[in-house]
Automatic annotation (TrEMBL), chain A:
It is a multi-pass membrane protein. The chain crosses the membrane at residues 43-73, 85-104, 170-201, 213-233. It comes from Paramagnetospirillum marisnigri. Keywords: Cell membrane, Ion transport, Membrane, Transmembrane, Transmembrane helix, Transport, Zinc, Zinc transport. Signal peptide: none annotated. This is High-affinity zinc uptake system membrane protein ZnuB.
Automatic annotation (TrEMBL), chain B:
The keyword Zinc applies. Residues 242-261 are annotated as: Disordered. InterPro entries: AAA+_ATPase, ABC_transporter-like_ATP-bd, ABC_transporter-like_CS, Metal_Ion_Import_ABC, P-loop_NTPase. The gene is znuC. It comes from Paramagnetospirillum marisnigri. This is Zinc ABC transporter ATP-binding protein ZnuC. Gene3D superfamilies: P-loop containing nucleotide triphosphate hydrolases (3.40.50.300). Residues 250-261 have a biased composition (Basic and acidic residues). Keywords: ATP-binding, Cell membrane, Ion transport, Membrane, Nucleotide-binding, Translocase, Transport, Zinc, Zinc transport. Pfam families: ABC_tran (PF00005). Residues 7-223 form the ABC transporter domain. One of its GO terms (molecular function) is ATP hydrolysis activity. PANTHER family: METAL TRANSPORT SYSTEM ATP-BINDING PROTEIN TM_0124-RELATED, ZINC IMPORT ATP-BINDING PROTEIN ZNUC. Signal peptide: none annotated.
Amino acid sequence: MDEFLIRALAAGLGLAAVAGPLGCFVVWRRMAYFGDALAHSALLGIVAGLLLGIVPLLGVIAVCVAVALILAAQGKDGSIASDSLLGILAHGALALGLVLLSTLDKVRLDLMGWLFGDILAVDWPDVGLVWAGGLAVLALLARHWRCLVAIAVDEDLARVDGHDVRRGRLVLMLMVALSVAAAIKVVGVMLVTAMLVIPAAAARGAARTPEQMALGAALIGGLAVAGGLAISWQWDTPSGPSIVTVAAALFGVSRIMSASCR
Amino acid sequence: MSSAALVTLRGVSVAYGGHVVLDAVDLTVERGRIVTVVGPNGAGKSTLLKVALGLILPDAGMVERPAACIGYVPQRLQVERILPLSVRRFLAMGVGQGGMNSVLEAGLERVGAGHVLGRQVADLSGGELQRVLLARALLRKPDLLVLDEPVGGVDMAGQAELYDLIAGVARDEGVGVLMVSHDLHVVMAATDEVVCLNRHVCCAGHPETVSRHPEYLALFGPRVAGSLAIYTHAHDHGHSADGSILPLDGGHRHGPECRHG
């Protein structure tokens, strides 16, 4: 096996291990559109990174975290529906990113790579970043697990039970922001929410507890990464869409299996 | 008696975007007492409970909450079907580490829902879920129970049982109860104090007194109030925390905006 494929597999599996459990919270709390909004605004981060001469991924992380913080701060004011605010932030940032992109003299940006992912181009430092970031997120997730599950059930009950709901919500948003930034490298801006939502939804059928679902989502995500890369290698298809296609197929299989068990 | 207060609200006002939901509301719940909030839709009943719980911060006024442990039954709980959560786990989450299986099962038996322990929360019927929520609140061994229409969706026989259970917990264990109920019959029979709320406290006091109150009649209409007349019966005593009989203190008191007598 070629080394670039090993690197791609290492990065993809690292992402799946984080995106699976986090994706469970995304589907439990109906945050799928939040992931999408982060991904769209990430283009601004990419361009900003290029303009400032830093690694684009750092720009992406900065923008994703900033959007998450703005949304968390907005809280429950309620003067504007949160999905409307998400749309305004996402498309405002996307548009600003495209405007800034046009001001760059010569476009040094592989736009397709960012839109649909370029996992085959990751280098070892990227892999290291994904794994280090992934382990940090998993540690954070484990630390706040009880609180986060309680919030997923009901925020008011969680608060009465003595959980710090505000902190839990903020931690969750930041973790999703970081994993979205990492997932952009693998499957691209257009498909990033898929890595969060599809493995989690596929893991629902067989799971009886939140923990089983989180573990199952990580495994299914890993399977999708391995299968997608194999297909991409075999038939020379784009890697990101191949991974998401396999994940969607696995979701279909899980639906059929849980329907036949019933 | 102030040492027995589990939660005290003084002059609490809440407004959403200029719309006043609660206006200068006073409320105290003491150990072993059942305080029931009644009022029409949109009167701010749930908001009042959430202020008492600390879930909503009031725009004005103050809330003191000496209660160490609170059991809360929300008006509605929507658990997404995509979240795999058994009743056992849901109960254990509220109880903490001491949630042994036998304890949880006994807690469910108490509310007449022993058979649902292994079921998924999302699969429960409305009435079953209300029973589970009440079991969860009671399993926490609370000082204060805050119940927002606790028997909504429960069958008629079950409602009476659950209200008896709540009254028993207040009487025998000295738990303070703050409750919203639309079931005025029950309110009249098993409540120490009724707070009649329509954004402000219209009137408050012993059920018997309140039910004859002009503002109460105006709020619920003579038909409802009249149909209740058969059910009302004179309370000439109350109960202290240990269940002993106490003479009644105080009739009803007037809310700040009452314009009668």
